[in-house]
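User: I'm curious whether this sequence folds into something compact or stays loose and floppy. Could you predict its structure so I can see for myself?
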Amino acid sequence: MGDMKQQLLQWIEEDRDKLIGFYSQFVATPSPNPPGDTRDAVAHISKFLHEHELNFRLVDPEPMFPNVVASFDGDGDGKHLVLNGHIDVFPAADEGWQHGGPWSGAVADGAVWGRGSADMKCGTSTSIFTYMYLHRIKELLKGKLTLTCVSDEETFGPWGARYLVDNLPEVHGDCCLNGEPSSPYSIRFGEKGPWWVSFRIRTRGAHGAYVHAGGSASWAAMAFCNDLKAVEAIDTPAPHNVGQALEEAREETDRAMGKGASDIVQKVTLNIGRMDAGLKVNMVPDECVIEADMRLPVGCEKEQVQKVIDEVLARHPDVEMEEINYTAPSWCDPYGEMVTHLQNNVETLRGFRPTPVISLGGTDARLWRYLGIGAYVYGPSPEGMGQRDEHVPVDDFLHTVKSHVLSAYDYLTNG
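Assistant: Here's the prediction. I'll summarize afterward.
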């Protein structure tokens, strides 16, 4: 490892308490979405950037959802790296937490605790620190580094990364590095695409004792849902070199996302998230609304799935379909340059090489991939995110910081 990379690691160790303190206070600043008001959390970021004399601007087409954008040029021509993280987090119940509630940001038992500690204030803090340290040595870098800390990610809203990508071409870059939870053992180079749809079934209904008098919407819904599972049998071969990467990543896919994840990563999955039927226990329901979450693997087109759904609908003429939301699957080169930098640096830091994988869940990294830009996710373990007692071990947080700082340095110096 070169002298400058050793110096970067030394600075991180010297700043250990400062980094943990920023991260802890970031978690302790509530930013649940919904409702999505991130202004206090953005003020926390702004204060840090001001203190370190780092110029930035707020891009806030919706004032409750401000975004932080900063950029600097190195000394000479080179590639443009974009760092991306989101500020908003899942909502949280106040009770049942071990360490002072969801907004404590407590540093206890070797971890930082609270809602958003994993998803994704660990990764967003990492992006901020990466920007700070590389700005300190910008005369040694080539190209450009851009920081984007965005709001409105948790609900796929329009005011965060989507707004920046659509309206600020200067945030596109040549590569995007994101710190969403991935597990230290894997690098996410793509993700499945969620397609949310509703189905409405209307029948005559009846008194509960007169089941012969009218069709039951709930029974019709159950039969329809059973037939809808046909979407899971769609053949979805992986494109280009993705299949090879997925086969090599089976063990780490299960390690990062739970046993069985590798079996479904390249399949269409169906989850019946909601069923709403009936007014009273002794009435035959005359209406049922179903909300389904289907996840499409990379290489799968929505039209392939729609064709199967249409075949099922033809057998259930009482069912009407309406789309709620669709986000296409995305992927980039599983063996791209940033993957190599991350693998090399993680191996130096911890002695193993993280494996490129496809994510089951979604991130803002997809927006860069839609533009043909390589976008990679490397962060802490996703275990516990969105649950009570969400937390990230301090060692994993610092490891994420070190991995991003060193890999961004390599990318901007052709390391």
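Summary: The two ends are 10 Å apart (CA to CA). The chain has a mean pLDDT of 96.
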